[in-house]
Write a structure and sequence with these properties.
Helix content: 25-40%
Number of helices: 14
Strand content: 25-35%
Largest sheet: 5 strands, parallel
Shape: globular
Bound molecules: adenosine monophosphate, glycine
Mean pLDDT: 95
Oligomer: single chain
Low-confidence stretches: 418-423
Radius of gyration: 20 Å
Length: 423
């Protein structure tokens, strides 16, 4: 099988790495890719949000499957164009991807499907925003209604700051605050049937102790030893299946990964957000543990064949990923710095590896930073405590002037158990 992955981040590096390890996959291509992805896939230049260009590349390569990583191409209709060209595609249509592209649309689908989520109002004027803030109370949750790469959400106790964020966006969704730990659950969907991957937890805030601004994600781990073993089944029954049933009933079947970002509230799991793609960096740890070869799984989803897929299997143990971010990420990332220590990690850290996110090669062939989240270091081990220690040992060997990372990824979870997790 020949697979083309669209995207250029750590998530796509993880996808390409897992596909390259699948004996059923003969060729892995990635467009546009990055400096690290080039070591596991053949990279091609492409404007990832141009439907005709991506479909054309898939045709030229004779791809048997196209996997679309980021949300922007999905919302732009790239999956539609690839499918129209007759190539199986893992990724929802533009219409179905609105589940991520428009928070108001997602709320409408959830209301129709009876999916548990916070109460919310869509506001376009300062008066509407003020009324909604007062109706739901603090902490205030104000979300840009459009795509904002995980950075359009402000959660604050400061009414002025909440109003200022609302004023800076054309349209916002203001919603009630959902208390409780957050979990990311990815469901592979073929339009009708959904299969869950293992849940993971992401760290959204920039700094230790969940301080600082929201980011695309600063680290993740799996399994979740503290979560109830029934969590996945419960979320599939109350959230995922009703949502894909609703989308199918609307004539826009959902094909790809439905990412449910959940708060485990005292009243049960509630949806904080849906994404139309794999989460980054949760995918890096989930795919690390997945033992079932990935190519056949994604092809089954893309071709309506999930019911025939045997249950997924996982390696034991745990995986932890830590994001190395550029100076000034997420506000105004500094790029272009030379990254050191990558060879040392490869040579000396047996149970750790680096996935590239925002990297490039400079004119001298050196790996340099080219984005906000620069790379992910993944550590693995028999339990979270070991995986975490392995990850941080490797992070300590990577150098990039001005870079920062969180030091508390999976810290609390690693302390919560001495043994392998239940999920
Ligand atoms: P989102 O982009 O919708 O995932 O929001 C980013 C982050 O903001 C989430 O991961 C949560 O940490 C936080 N957040 C968003 N909505 C809520 C909410 N209703 N209640 C509590 N936290 C929220
Ligand atoms: N890790 C959060 C996201 O991918 O949106």
């Amino acid at each position: 099988m020949r697979v083309l992955v669209i995207g250029s981040g750590g998530r796509e590096h993880a996808l390409c790495r897992a596909l390259a390890a699948d004996s059923q996959v003969d060729e892995v291509h990635c467009a546009p890719g990055n400096a690290g992805i080039a070591s596991v896939a053949t990279v091609h230049a492409v404007r990832a949000t141009d439907p005709a260009e991506v479909a054309g590349l898939a045709g030229k390569l004779g791809a048997d499957l196209v996997v679309i990583g980021p949300e922007a191409p999905l919302v732009a209709g790239v999956a539609d164009a690839v499918r129209e060209a007759g190539v199986p595609c893992f990724g929802p249509s533009a219409e179905a991807a609105r589940i991520e592209g428009s928070k108001a649309f997602a709320k409408d689908v959830m209301a129709a499907a009876g999916v548990p989520t916070g109460r919310a109002s869509t506001c376009s004027t300062p008066q509407e925003a003020a009324a909604a803030l007062d109706a739901y109370g603090t902490p205030y949750v104000v979300k840009d209604d459009g795509l904002a790469a995980g950075k359009g959400v402000v959660v604050t106790g400061d009414r002025e700051a909440a109003l200022a964020h609302a004023a800076a966006c054309e349209r916002v969704v203001i919603e009630e605050y959902l208390p409780g730990p957050e979990v990311s659950l990815f469901a592979l969907c073929d339009g009708v049937t959904a299969v869950a991957l293992r849940p993971a937890q992401d760290f959204k805030r920039a700094y230790d102790g969940d301080e600082g601004p929201n980011t695309g994600g600063m680290g993740a781990y799996t399994p979740l030893p503290w979560a109830a073993p029934s969590l996945t089944d419960e979320v599939m029954a109350t959230v995922v299946q009703p949502t894909i049933d609703e989308l199918a009933a609307r004539g826009t079947p959902y094909i790809g990964v439905l990412y449910a970002g959940l708060a485990l509230t005292p009243d049960g799991p509630k949806v904080i957000e849906f994404n139309a793609r794999f989460g980054d960096p949760e995918t890096q740890v989930v795919l690390d543990r997945l033992a079932t070869p990935l190519g056949g799984v994604l092809l089954a989803a893309a071709t309506g064949a999930l019911p025939a897929l045997p249950p997924l299997t996982y390696r034991g143990g745990a995986a932890v990923t830590v994001v190395l971010a550029s100076e000034n990420y997420p506000q105004a990332p500094v790029t272009g710095g030379v990254i050191g220590g990558l060879d040392e990690v490869a040579e000396q850290c047996e149970d750790a590896y680096v996935l590239h996110a925002g990297t490039a090669l400079d004119a001298d062939g050196r790996v340099v930073s080219a984005g906000g989240r620069v790379l992910n270091v993944v550590g693995t081990g028999p339990d979270l405590r070991t995986a975490r220690a392995v990850a941080y040992d490797a992070v300590g060997r990577v150098t990039l002037a001005g870079s920062h990372h969180r030091t508390d990824i999976a810290a609390a979870a690693a302390e919560s158990t001495e043994t392998e997790g239940t999920l």
